[in-house]
Amino acid sequence: MEVTQSDLHAAAAAYQEFGYVCLPKFFSQTMLDKIEPVVRAFHDRWLEDNHAFYKSHAVNSSGLTADTYLNKAERQTLFTLIGCDSMTKLASALLRRPVYMNSQLFFDPYNPHQKNYWHRDGQYHLSIEEQQAALHGPDVIHVRIPLADEPGLELVPKSHKQWDSEQALDVRLERNGRSKSDSIPGSVALPLKRGDVLAFSANMLHRGLYGNQRFALDILFCEPEMHSFLNDVHQPCAEIRATLECLAVFP
């Protein structure tokens, strides 16, 4: 997709208002054909070490750009995608001075009956008060790149800036008889096709929708104030940096 200033302006406006933006056919199939074998190689090697975790409940893995499961050439392929012109322009339209943070891979659970769950990313390391404060602080975005057509995500629009209703809070914290897989009023389901990109705030209420053998790469960017969450193992080494055309999103 040729990313124009008009596209970026519209994407930024939608993101600021709703907390997410979906861009159809953002990446060419040719680009994804280069990326997918690397991602599948990571997944196969990760499964060898994490098979019990996968069979019990796992729906995602992380740290694709570290050297744990990928060699230097494979990592270079991912860094080329992360730092490409269209990705850099999109991240820069949505965040103030975006910095590459980490990567994640989302797949279907081993158990086809496993239920999905509502959450805000921050709830796993922040108190309720800190989660509320995070809605007004520096932002983190997921840029989701589906490598197969998939049911996508379900989001609560504007929840990147608005706190939970009582019902929504009960659902995601499983209080008052609610389950984290219950429906939340006002949510929107966003099915995705291979080539689409969905950018959304990590702060917002969301859940993955399983099925159709989903296989989606998420690239996470943050604002500079989040530097304490960065880890050098996820960043390109000097040798790889020397091969990249654009280093704008790398610290």
TrEMBL record:
It comes from the Bacteria. Keywords: Dioxygenase, Oxidoreductase. One of its GO terms (molecular function) is dioxygenase activity. The keyword Oxidoreductase applies. This is Phytanoyl-CoA dioxygenase family protein. The keyword RNA-binding does not apply. It comes from Pseudoalteromonas fenneropenaei. InterPro entries: Phytyl_CoA_dOase-like. Its cofactor is Fe(2+).
